[in-house]
Design brief:
By secondary structure, this protein is mainly alpha-helical. Helices cover 74% and strands 0% of the residues. Helix 1 packs across helix 4, helix 6 packs across helix 10 and helix 9 runs antiparallel to helix 10.
């Protein structure tokens, strides 16, 4: 059972999410948030340091989920394992991502479309840069561990492959594409990713 303080905190977060999605972070009003939450503006600061803190708390379920995913793909040999996986395994992973974005659509809308003026306004580029650095480092370790590998894939190429993958989900939110529509496009997009990725990297293995 929620305590009065927990209830008030939840009401403030709900009101802030509604205000941020309606107005965007930059134009959102703390006074309006207070009015929607039925508290005084000063009372909000008993729970949250500022408007940015409110935004981070609202986005935390997705941000922490993405960090867990990042930790998973940072495990040793993940890079090599990925291109040895079958198309069906890639599809299973894609479906997990698709369901995750669809189930948190309101939070992803806030993160990708409404966070201008906050520290997270460049989140897609920041995430892409992190993923690129990780994958390129894993790729270099893979080359060292596989002396028969004759290929040379650039960091630029890896960044663009990853950019295509991430942009699928970004455009799902930006264009408000339903999950059912995404499933219609899934096969063609995944074939491009799966076989293009292997063509660029794994085909050079002897």
């Amino acid at each position: 059972m929620q305590t009065p303080k927990e209830h008030t905190r939840r009401e403030i977060l709900n009101a802030a999410k509604e205000e941020f999605i309606q107005m965007g972070f930059e134009k959102a009003s703390m006074r309006t948030i207070a009015k929607k939450a039925k508290v005084s503006t000063s009372n909000i600061y008993n729970y949250f340091e500022n408007k940015e803190h409110l935004l981070i708390e609202i986005l935390n379920p997705v941000l922490s989920g993405l960090e867990k995913a990042f930790d998973f793909i940072s495990q040793p040999n993940y890079f090599e394992k990925r291109f040895n996986d079958s198309y069906e395994t890639w599809k299973e992973r894609f479906d997990i991502g698709l369901n995750y974005v669809d189930n948190h659509r309101d939070i992803f809308t806030l993160l990708l479309l409404k966070s201008q003026g906050s520290s997270l306004e460049d989140f897609p580029d920041t995430l892409l840069s992190r993923l690129t650095a990780l994958n390129f480092e894993q790729y270099k370790h893979f080359k060292e561990a596989n002396p028969n590998y004759k290929g040379d894939v650039s960091e630029f190429a890896i960044r663009n492959i990853l950019s295509f993958f991430l942009n699928i989900f970004v455009q799902m939110i930006r264009q408000n594409i339903s999950k059912s529509e995404m499933l219609l496009y899934e096969d063609s997009m995944l074939k491009f990713l799966h076989f293009g990725y292997k063509g660029a990297i794994a085909s050079n293995l002897n």
